[in-house]
Specification:
Oligomer: single chain
Number of strands: 7
Shape: globular
Number of domains: 1
Radius of gyration: 17 Å
Low-confidence stretches: 1-5
CATH architecture: 3-Layer(aba) Sandwich
Mean pLDDT: 93
CATH topology: Rossmann fold
Helix content: 25-40%
Strand content: 15-25%
Structural class: alpha/beta
CATH class: Alpha Beta
Length: 240
């Protein structure tokens, strides 16, 4: 598949569209880095973008999406938002009009075959002190039918993700596992029962009942493993 033929199945989007607690939790992990000019790579239909736009600390939100069908939905959804600019294409190909303060990828890096190239592109696009903010699936041993259905190339281990970011010239400020109970659920769904989709009702129930409890616990106690990994990697300041 060439870059110009990219098409993403988008199988995750419907299930996650109403996952308000899930997205708020992810947003809270990135904290003060969500400010100024922020680029979201692989914005899809704008599920997480909508939550980013709710932050007054973000002056400009740049949304990048390579899939033509998803881009049409994305651009239409935010057509009347003065702080939003949308770009159809691949990150690194588009002129973003200058450096950015943060680059966000939520459940996106695993869809990119050459993830090291994207990290290098992020380094070039960030202003000194700017941050690459990642949320990715964790645990290669969890890779199963759901990952294949969702077009994942991989799931990450913490050590490998830290190495990837460090080799790309970024300083890793934080990297930890997230959502320990979700790892068991993903294993059962994708390895045991061979599911190929997440039902909207399942996600809504988990989001409403489990995520608020898990997020409070894991804010205090970091789990040794989890369904996902978050990372914050900062571009070094220019030496004086």
């Amino acid at each position: 598949m060439t870059r110009h033929e990219f098409h993403y199945s988008g199988a995750e989007f419907e299930a996650l569209s109403q996952a308000d607690n899930y997205y708020r939790w992810i947003r809270s992990m990135f904290g003060e880095h969500l400010r100024g000019r922020v680029a979201e790579v692989g914005a899809g239909r704008g599920n997480f973008s909508e939550r980013l736009l709710a932050l007054d600390s973000i002056n400009d939100l740049l949304l990048i999406e390579p899939d033509a069908d998803l881009y049409r939905e994305l651009s239409s959804r935010f057509a009347d938002e003065a702080r939003v600019s949308t770009f159809e294409g691949y990150f690194g190909d588009e002129d973003l009009g200058g450096p950015v303060d943060a680059i966000v990828l939520v459940n996106v890096l695993e869809h990119i075959e050459d993830d090291a190239s994207l990290v290098r592109s992020a380094w070039r696009a960030l202003r000194p002190g700017g941050a690459l903010l990642l949320f990715v699936p964790a645990g290669p041993n969890l890779f199963g039918s759901l990952d294949r259905a969702f077009d994942h190339f991989r799931r990450y281990e913490r050590r490998g993700l830290v190495e990837l970011l460090s080799e790309g010239g970024l300083n890793v400020a934080a990297a930890h596992y997230v959502n320990a109970p979700g790892a068991l659920i993903w294993f059962l769904a994708g390895r045991v029962f061979q599911q190929r989709t997440i039902r909207l009702a399942q996600m809504k129930l988990y989001d409403r009942l489990a995520i608020p409890v898990i997020s409070r616990i894991e804010t205090i106690l970091r789990p040794p493993r989890g369904q996902s990994l978050m990372a914050i990697a900062v571009k070094p300041e220019i030496p004086a």
